[in-house]
Amino acid sequence: MKMVREGCVTELYSLNERMALLRRQIAKDEVKKKELEIELGMAATGKDLSAVKNDIIQRQADIEDMERDILNLEGEKARIRVAIEQGEGEKELSRIDSEIMTHSTELSAIGEKLKSQDSIILEERSTKMRKEIEQNTDEKKELDKAIAEHHSKMKQHSRQLEAKEEKIKDATRELQKLWDESKALSEEIENLTREKGKLMMRQGRMREDQIRLSASKEMNQTRLTDLKVEADQYKDVEPLDMKREALEQRMVEVENDLLTIGFVNQKAPETFKEKLDEYNQIKDKVNILNNEKDAVIKMIDEIELRKKDVFMATFTAVNEHFKKMAEAIFHSESALVLENEANPFEGGLHILMKMGKKERHIESMSGGEKSLLTIAFVFALHMYRPSSFYILDEVEAALDKENSKKFANLVKELSSQAQFIVVSHNDNVIPFADVALGVTRTPRGSKILSVKLTDGEGKPMPMGKGAGA
């Protein structure tokens, strides 16, 4: 009995060791399960992943079976203790041996299955890793090849870039050369323009000289005609072909002959007196006419002096208005300059504009600038003696978009002092108007339409308001 009891105790110890072994095996299987899940989560896909998941599920089922076996062994252990205490140890020991054999067989089968599954998974992983290594090697070779081609292209592009930079430098030098030539041509044009202005002034003076010479020529021709008529009265008289001494001797003889003749006409004194009275009357009239002439000349001189003063005062006022107009349009200094300030009626008028340190004549400006300066000059004249009403008929037709806006702004500012009616087809001018009038064609004939573009304070009207027919 004692020996049976000792055998049962030994069997209990062996069961405890088997249980501990099974628990360690379960822990290892759990660790392998986690490792496989991590590895499969990174590498496995599709069909392989589903197979591994099925294997994991099977292993979990095996582990659950092992846990149930452990519980059963725990129960068996308790039952063996009870049987030993009740004296049924041998019977129970033989039953336990058979169960141990059964469980050992199952445990060996499970171990072999685990080993086979591990080797299959490791083989699959190794195969996949080889394929990945080969694929990565091929990709590396392709990348090396692409990098080499890229470096080659970079070198080629660098050479092309250097060539283009050299071309750009050559083009820059050529452009600088052209700019210098353009600058030289501009200075030459400025010099030619000034020379042209001087020549035009000289041409004007030559025209005036030509007019004076033509008048003198006509007077000389008239005098020559009168002399020819007077010479025709003595055409029957033969000229004396004598020397001076002979003529003087002949004159003495004629005077002696006159002395020998004596007084012939007794009424000559009365006639002389009458002629003298007529002469004195004519002389008095001539003196009166000379006095009147002097008075008229003096009046003319006073008028000329006053005319010059009035002209210079008017010119100064108009010049001030013109400067303001030009400043508002071009934002630069402009002025009217007389050719001959001492006698302005013998010279012309120039329009100058300062562009930085240089002065430009109106002849050297563009067509739009000339048109704007001319309009500013006309407005300056009208501002000297302003009118309350102006009509402008397409005066901005030759202006471009920018200069049209400058013209429209100028008229907008002046409209606060006078009323303007502007005839225009320019879309850049119409928006600045207070009221736009148009003529449209209808089946009943022409119809006038008006659109009020601003309110009473000069502000733009909101869209949809202010229209009327």
Describe the structure.
With about 475 residues, the chain is mainly alpha-helical. Among the domains are: about 150 residues; about 50 residues; about 90 residues, no CATH class. Helix content is about 70%, strand content about 10%. The protein has seven helices and eight strands. Strands 1-2-3 form a three-stranded antiparallel beta sheet. α5 packs across α6.
What's the short version?
With 469 residues, the protein is mostly helical. The protein has 7 helices and 8 strands; from the N terminus they run αααααβββαβαββββ.
Proportion of beta-strand residues: 5-15%
Main β-sheet, spatial strand arrangement: 1-2-3
Alpha carbon gap, first and last residue:
135 Å
Secondary-structure element series: HHHHHEEEHEHEEEE
Structural classification: mainly alpha
Q: Segments where pLDDT lies below 50 for 5+ residues?
A: 42-47, 463-469
Based on CA inertia axes, which overall geometry fits?
Answer: rod-shaped
Number of strands: 8
Largest sheet: 3 strands, antiparallel
What is the typical, i.e. mean, pLDDT?
A: 77
